[in-house]
Structures are given as C-alpha cells and as structure tokens.
Amino acid sequence: MFAKLEKWQRNLIVLWLGCFIAGVGFSELAPFLSLYVEELGNFNKGQLSLYSGVTYAITFLVVAIVSPLWGRLADRKGRKLMLLRSSLGMAIIIGACGFVHTIWELLILRFLEGLCAGYIPNASALIAAESPRAKSGAALGILTTGYVSGNLIGPVLGGFLAQVFSIRLTFVLTGFLLLIVFGLSLFFVHEDFVPASQKKKFPHHSFPLAQFKNPSAIIVLLLSTMIIQMGNNSITPIISLYVKELMHGVGPITIAAGIIAALPGVSTLLTAPRLGELGDRKGHGKILLFGFVFAVIMYLPQGLIASVWTLGILRFMIGISDGALFPTVQTLLSKDSPSSLVGTIFSWNQSFQALGSMFGSLLGGVVSNLYGYSGVFIFTALSLFFNLILALIFIPELHFSGKNKQV
C-alpha cells in the first residue's frame, strides 16, 4: 500500500513520523532544564534563575542567527541533506548533554544544539516544494500535527523517564530517538532536487528580496510568525502561576496547569489539517483572517476570568487559531517564493519563530511583573491585532477580490 502512494504522499508520511519523534525529543527535556542546571552546581536562587534562563534562551538565539545560512545551503544542496545534518547533529549533542558535569559544558552544548537545529522547517520546506501546489496547504497542515502532537507527548514522556530513570538518562534516550529520525530521513525520504544556477539564486543580496513577487508580503508573513510565537510563549512563564491563583492555591495545581498548557496543542492537532484543506479550497487569505480575529477574541478575556475551567476552554480555542495561523503562514510563504528559495524562506521563518520564543518569554515575565497576569493576555491580543492590521495592508491574499478567491 505504501508503495502505491505518490512520492509526495510517502514523503509526508515519513516526515510526519520524523517530525513527531523530533517534537517529542525537543520538548521532553525543556521542563526539566532548570532542575538539571540545579544538579550542576551549588547555586543560590538568583544564580539558578539566571543560568536556567540563559541555558533555555541560548539555543533560540543561535537558531535565529544561523537558520538563514542553513536555508541558503538547503537551496544549493537540497533539503534532505539539511534533514540529515540536523537530526544526526542533534542526536549526538543532546545525547552528550547527559554526560556534562558543569554549567559551562551544558551551555556549550546548548549553543551547539542551536547550530544543529532545523529539522522541522526543512521538512516543511521539502513538503512545500515536493507537493502539488493545490494540495500544499493540506499537506503542511498534516505535517503540523506531527510536531504538535510530539510536543504534547514529549513533556509527559520526559517526566515519566526522568522520574523512573534520571534526567541524565533522558538526554541519552532523546539522542537515541533522534538517531531513529536520522535513519527514517536517510532511507525513506526522496527529493527531486535540481539546484538553480548560482547566479540566478544569489545575485548580490545577502537576503535576495528582489527575487520575490511581493517582498513586503514576505516580510509581514515572517513578522507574523514571530508575533504569533511571541504570543504563545508570553503565556508560558506565567500559566502555572495563573492557574494557582485561579485555584486559590488549593488542589492538584501542577496537574491542572499541565493539562491547560497542553490544551492548545490538542485543538491544533485536531483542526490544522482541516483548516489547511479548507484553505486550499476556499483561499488561504480567509483562513489567515479567521485565525487572527479568532485569536484576538480568545486572548482578551483570558486575563479577566475567575474560573480555571473557563481558562481551559479559552486555551483550547487558542489552539484552533494556531492551527489556522502557523500552517497558513507557511503555505503563503511557499506560494509566494521562487522554488529555488523555498529552503531559504523557511529557514528565515524558523529564525523569526526562534526570536518569537525568546522575546515572548522575556516580555511575558516583564509585562506580568508590571501589570499582572491579565496584562500578559491583553498585551498578546494587542500584538496580534497589530499583526492583523499589517496583514490586511500588505498581504494580497487578504484583499478579497475575484482574482484572489483561490490562491
């Protein structure tokens, strides 16, 4: 049955599994980094907070800087090569994290981890390039469910492994999981890659905006990725504290916080493929508009509620907006980019997503300190509303004339 599928469909199945395993591997350790840092020295509370923050942020910072370089190499050498580079490099480096004995060794490896990142955006770029244009939205929506579901399962699996074995062994097991991803990518992913001429691809621009049909739309789409991710991550530092406040410090607070943190991923998993397919049929501009408006409406009341159950419902709804926004932004980026620059643009997209993760965590902490928890949700809603205005002005697919009905 697998052999009877078209090549792009086989790639989608294999890369979905690869993104799922990668999502598990990348997410199962994040909640425990601060606990691992604590094992590496005798730190006071301030030092522990500082080292934990730097350990978390340094990977995103490096990803933001180097992703465009890897993207240009992907456009010259192929996206499959980048999949192999990322999965093998991450397998070795994350596995090695289980053997460090000082905070400085861990920081060096987290730095190197950022250099090796890029599996998921290159998988997205390969699917976007190899899939029929009429089906690319649905294909990217399906791919999104792979790493979203991996991210959902990762923390649960990581907590179980850390409890039963140790955090150190969890790093090693994660490295082994990523070796499986490397094997899947090496043997089962096929790419019909024909590099464009060097002159055609890279004239004299470090970022060749002149080769895009609508450079301003590309810039706004990249900013959208950053703002959407910034909104998601601005909530991360305070979600458990907010749940504790809503529950008045009584009851299974950590369990409730974990469930609420996972709810957006559940709804994204359920809705992203359907919204991608709907975008292919009805127009991706309509899906993007829906995602922004729905996100603003769902974020605003989250800081004004008095029940943890209401918060859970609203957080579930936010996952629907994520399922509309992330795959649609990727689809529009691929449709508006020359085929020779798909890898480049998806690597820039990863850079902006990494910046969103970094800025979101920082801004969430600052805003909650100044204006309380409700301020974080209002700030996020206003950021997304500003993003919507930019999109309405600069992205042609949101100008609903007759010629833009189907994109």
TrEMBL record:
Q: Please state the protein's primary subcellular location.
A: membrane
Q: Which terms in the Gene Ontology molecular function aspect does this entry carry? A: transmembrane transporter activity
Q: Does the keyword Lyase apply?
A: no
- Please give the PROSITE patterns that the UniProt record associates with this protein: MFS
Q: Mention any one GO cellular component term assigned to this protein in its UniProt record.
A: plasma membrane
Bilayer-crossing regions: 12-36, 48-70, 82-101, 140-161, 167-189, 250-275, 287-309, 370-395
Under InterPro entries, the record lists: MFS, MFS_dom, MFS_trans_sf, Tet-R_TetA/multi-R_MdtG-like
What subcellular locations does the record give? Cell membrane
- Asked if the record carries the keyword Transmembrane helix, the reply is yes
Q: How does it sit in the membrane?
A: Multi-pass membrane protein
Keywords, sorted A to Z: Cell membrane, Membrane, Transmembrane, Transmembrane helix, Transport
Major facilitator superfamily (MFS) profile domain location: 11-399
Q: Which Pfam families match?
A: MFS_1
* PANTHER family linked: MULTIDRUG RESISTANCE PROTEIN MDTG
User: What is the designated name of this protein?
Assistant: MFS family major facilitator transporter, multidrug cation symporter MdtG
From which lineage does this chain's organism come?
Answer: Bacteria, Bacillati, Bacillota, Bacilli, Lactobacillales
